[in-house]
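Final report, Chapter 2: Outcomes

The project's central promise was a pipeline that accepts a single protein chain and returns its three-dimensional structure in a standardized token representation, suitable for archiving and comparison. That pipeline is now operational. To close this chapter, we reproduce one record exactly as it appears in the project archive, with the input sequence first and the structure output second.
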Amino acid sequence: MQRPDSADGLDVELSGHAHLAVSVGAEAAVDSLSERLRADGHPAIDGPRVMGDGYDECVVLDPDGNRVEITT
């Protein structure tokens, strides 16, 4: 996912790639994987939760601070 409308000088969180998303197929899998990642020391910055579009998701940070979305 990219933000082609972002301009130079913006906060790094608002420019370039926004995040990587991985579909794991089921709400229970999202919950299980997000809990495992948190237990391994990867901060969860959002969720798990059900989004307005009906997808379950959780966003964690990888060791380099990149956002990784775990979704159904």
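Archive annotation: The first helix runs from residue 27 to 39.
This record, like all others produced under the grant, will remain available to the consortium after the project formally closes.
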